[in-house]
Design goal:
- It is a single chain.
- This protein is an all-alpha fold.
- Helix 2 packs across helix 3 and helix 2 packs across helix 7.
- The protein has a domain of about 140 residues: Tetracycline Repressor, domain 2 (Orthogonal Bundle).
- The N terminus is likely disordered.
- The protein is elongated, with a radius of gyration of 20 Å.
- This is Transcriptional regulator, TetR family.
- InterPro entries: DNA-bd_HTH_TetR-type_CS, Homeodomain-like_sf, HTH-type_TetR-like_transc_reg, HTH_TetR, Tet_transcr_reg_TetR-rel_C_sf, Tscrpt_reg_YbiH_C.
- One of its GO terms (molecular function) is transcription cis-regulatory region binding.
- It comes from Methylococcus capsulatus (strain ATCC 33009 / NCIMB 11132 / Bath).
Length: about 240
């Protein structure tokens, strides 16, 4: 597997692109990002071509170099763009509101996480793209940036909610395991969607069905976490 660290040339291009005077909300730039998100998600970084992306966006083939500098820099920006767009549609605002009970915060977190994963618009491809990148990181270094700026803070947010529900006595490693157990339930519906659509189509067929499924995951998780609150924590063998 190739290293996920950026090459010097890619890093330099990305730096140049960051200082580009082109507005972030330029319509051509946004069409390129949307088209690239779809194609990168469906084909992966290596099989996607700049020509195909520009054709999908209905822009001149030179537009990628003008707006981003290279295919690698475009890919890096697409990962961040996908997360920003998903965060606008499915914000974790209430999940981060510590004035709310942890049960409410967890319900909000799960609802928005599952919504992001099962979105049927082009935004739904952000999960597919991220899954590709996690399984086989590209040499752009994009994954490191997305993890540090978005995924890690969300994991820390979930760990904090879980910690409130289980109470004191559990280690940091315990919090990570419990948080991943919650996320894993949501991932099941994403990775097994083709199976679920054929065997249990009513479970996630509509936005309302997805909301009901998110509520089920939340109730199941809250019940388990509250049960752990009553138990003595097991020793952390990892130290």
């Amino acid at each position: 597997m190739k290293s996920g660290r950026p090459t010097e040339s890619v890093a330099r291009i990305a730096s140049m692109n960051a200082s580009n005077d082109t507005p972030r909300h330029d319509p051509t730039r946004k069409r390129l990002l949307q088209a690239a998100l779809e194609i990168f998600a469906d084909k992966g970084f290596r099989d996607a071509t700049v020509r195909e992306i520009c054709a999908r966006a209905e822009v001149n083939v030179a537009s990628v170099n003008y707006h981003f500098g290279s295919k690698e820099a475009l890919y890096s920006e697409v990962l961040g763009f996908a997360y920003r767009e998903a965060s606008e549609r499915y914000p974790y605002t209430k999940a981060g509101d510590k004035s709310l009970p942890p049960e409410v915060r967890l319900r909000h977190f799960i609802g928005n996480l599952l919504g992001r994963m099962l979105d049927d618009t082009y935004l739904g491809r952000h999960g597919k793209l991220l899954a590709r990148e996690l399984a086989d990181p590209t040499p752009t270094g994009a994954l490191d940036q997305v993890i540090e700026t978005t995924m890690k803070p969300h994991c820390e947010l979930l760990d904090g909610i879980v910690a409130e529900l289980v109470g004191p006595g559990y280690s940091e490693a315990d919090m990570h395991r419990l948080g991943l157990s919650v996320v894993g339930q949501c991932l099941m519906y994403y990775h097994s969607r083709s199976l679920i659509d054929r065997v249990y189509p009513e479970i996630i067929a509509t936005p309302e069905d997805i909301e009901r499924t998110a509520e089920h995951i939340a109730r199941f998780s809250i019940a388990a976490l509250k049960h752990l609150h009553l138990e003595k924590p097991a020793p952390d063998r990892a130290g």
